[in-house]
Amino acid sequence: MTEAPRVLIWWSTGAASYVAAKLALRQHPDALLVRCDTDNEDVDNYRFEADACRRLNRDITTIRSTEYRSVWDVWTRRKFIAGRKGAPCTSEMKVAPRLAFQRPHDLHVFGYTADRLDALRYKRMTETFFELHTWAPLIDNGVTKFGALAIVERDGLELPRSYAMGFPNANCLETGCGKATDPKYWALFRYHFPHRFDRTAALSRQLGARLTRIDGERRFIDEIPADHPMLDPIVPACDFLCAATDWDGDE
Ligand code: SF4
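A: This is the predicted complex of the input protein with iron/sulfur cluster.
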């Protein structure tokens, strides 16, 4: 017997996926909110998730890798953090569980925003995974990242603390995102989470992983000067493209 197609809202514990869920549930009240468990989110993301679930009156379906416990587990056992072809944490903790969970006719709902680069990334994702049925309701409704933050607050929800700290997205703040190369991102991560930074810096040294780039040169993150600027850090989006291509948002 063929299994029925479902509507899967990919939940990331951030503001954009909340708005995607809110918009999608209006049209598909039986949709599932699905999160790939990385065991790598900041504790306040889980607080936001619990608040959002109460507001939406839905539970989260959590899916996870059958081989790895966490992003950290992937990095240490694979002895690799990230490279030009992508990040193994994405392929192991996000893509593999998604492939195991999805059915051929499911509709996949994503929280890509109407900001130009995010919309381009969504286009790229649909071209890469052309076999998927996808929908980006924020793009259809013209909701930008800034607009998504406003909608969350208007709904009476307290945003994950990472936004007020200056991070452009809330992903993987237990370790910092291994795909991030911007020294401003790592300087900000070190400022807010010095112990987590030290742990990732030590593993990077052990693996020879020069995660950042300063003046065009690959450097270890513990080489970033103590007074390095932290404003407007760039961190790549973490989605199914991370493992499929080295394209990271630049045109
Ligand atoms: S956000 Fe970064 S560290 Fe986390 S799974 Fe994605 S690529 Fe890996």
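The two ends are 44 Å apart (CA to CA). Confidence is low (pLDDT under 50) at residues 245-251.
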